[in-house]
Write a structure and sequence with these properties.
alpha+beta, 5-stranded mixed β-sheet, 18% strand
């Protein structure tokens, strides 16, 4: 177990011209620490109470320990350091750069890595590990920094191996081209034609494959001796956080194989339950309980169950308060609750209100012309509209396009022969209806009953077969 030193103060000062006249947000992924004012020529100074560990100054990661007096300077996107703590932070920058120099990244894009043959790939990782070990042999560096960076490198390598296993031989540019071509023809294709096109796109993107033996060897390297309970890495390493999630997915699939009845449960509920048995570190447990409960509360189902389950598991008072607030806001969108209202413009500029559909069921599609997954749903939505055109239901598509893209929206409606009622929100993501429904991503579908009450705040997509079962029951 790696433990941080007791909390005490550090001083961080310096000059970062890009922040002149603004401020820098200091945080550690868990919590906001403070807002550091920067004067009009870029100078700043702050005294912060910290444990030994890693802290973000906006997007840039620093290593801080009690007693540090770190002086920071940023020139032409290159950080330099002076004072106590400068050795560790200079090394941190060099270690990050070593990864980029040892593996064939191109402008941060890892695609070339996925085309390395296994031997060359392993040699590149060995080169990265060797160079970092050499850097960490520097005298007079913090022991805590040394140990955490050794761990970080070990699990960064596991993360890259996992990405290589998933993406070896995949030409991402070709994949994008195939998907763009697919999107351009999507509105005129049948569901079977779309499925075949997607299969062709997936086949076209993978130019070569690893053998079964190579896959097994990689899996062994990644997961043998994998520790899912390393708190310090979970606090700052995005690679380790993603690996923990991948590990939970593997355990979830194994659970499905052993106990097929679990397939009827929500995937995130199963993962949350696996956390109870696999994660022993209190910090990571609390973060994952919070994460999975947040997702579960947004499914529009079993609010009380998920909330009460969380209360029986969690101990972090700040997280509990946030989950309670989320639970209460999501309950307002529970089935049977009155739906938030809207009054929005159609393509002719006429105002259309939700109340004008009273007496009919309303199926709402929240989308935008720039949203690929939204466009993928259009053919299935047309099929649903045709099937239920003589039933007591209205289909309303609400665009979240920016106000300046109204002409683009109108052109898209015409060129794709979109049916139903077409509306556009008044202020994109900041529109009242969007905020009241807590919409964070699109496509999003909402089903409202004949009295203007919510049937589902997260209804099934048109491409999901179960939507027709839902509509058939409602429209009997």
């Amino acid at each position: 177990m790696i433990c941080a030193h007791a909390s005490a103060q550090v001083t961080v000062s310096g000059k970062i011209i890009r922040y002149a006249g603004r401020s820098i947000t200091c945080h550690n992924r868990d919590r906001y620490l403070l807002q550091i004012p920067v004067d009009k020529i870029g100078n700043f100074k702050a005294t912060i109470s910290v444990d030994s560990g890693y802290y973000f100054f906006d997007q840039h990661l620093f290593y801080l320990e009690p007693g540090f007096n770190l002086i920071v300077d940023l020139q032409d996107s290159i950080y330099s350091f002076k004072g106590r703590g400068s050795v560790e932070n200079t090394l941190l920058t060099k270690i990050n750069n070593t990864l980029l120099s040892s593996l064939p990244f191109e402008n941060g894009n890892p695609q070339k890595i996925f085309f390395l043959e296994p031997t060359e790939f392993y040699n590149s990782l060995a080169d990265y590990q060797s160079k970092v070990s050499q850097l960490l042999s520097t005298q007079n560096i913090s022991k805590f920094f040394f140990r955490t960076q050794k761990l970080k490198v070990e699990y960064t390598i596991k993360y890259i191996e996992n990405e290589y296993l998933a993406h070896y031989g995949i030409d991402l540019d070709r994949r994008r081209q195939e998907i763009e071509a697919l999107n351009n023809t999507k509105s005129s294709q049948t569901r079977e034609e779309r499925l075949n096109s997607l299969i062709n796109a997936n086949n076209a993107m993978r130019t070569k494959r690893l053998t079964s033996q190579q896959k097994n060897e990689l899996n062994a390297k990644i997961w043998e001796n994998f520790d899912i309970n390393i708190e310090i890495l979970y606090r700052f390493s995005s690679e380790y956080i993603k690996l923990v999630d991948s590990r939970l997915s593997i355990l979830q699939k194994a659970q499905f194989t052993k106990e097929p009845y679990l397939r009827s449960k929500n995937l995130n509920e199963v993962k949350r339950d696996i956390v109870k048995s696999e994660i022993f570190n209190n910090y990571i447990r609390e973060k994952l309980f919070y994460y999975y409960t947040s997702i579960l509360l947004k499914t529009g189902k079993n609010y009380d169950q998920y909330y009460n389950d969380y209360l029986s598991l969690a101990k972090d008072t700040a997280n509990i308060a946030e989950i309670k607030q989320l639970y209460q806001s999501e309950k307002l969108l529970s089935p049977g609750s009155p739906s938030p209202k809207f009054e929005l413009n159609d393509p002719s500029g006429k105002k259309v209100a939700l109340d004008s559909f009273k007496g009919k069921f309303v199926y709402i599609d929240l989308w935008a012309t720039w949203c690929g997954p939204c466009i993928e749903e259009i053919p299935a939505l047309k099929e649903i509209q045709n099937k239920y055109q003589n039933k007591n239901i209205c289909f309303v598509s609400i665009s979240i396009d920016n106000p300046g893209d109204t002409l683009k929206w109108k052109t898209f409606i015409t060129s794709h022969s979109l049916g139903g009622t077409q509306l556009i929100v008044e202020n994109a993501w900041n529109s009242d209806f969007i905020k009241k429904y807590g919409v964070a991503t699109i496509p999003r579908f909402i089903l409202i009953d004949t009295n203007g009450n919510i049937v589902s705040a997260n209804a099934e997509r048109p491409s999901v077969t179960s939507l027709q079962n839902t509509l058939d029951k409602l429209l009997l």
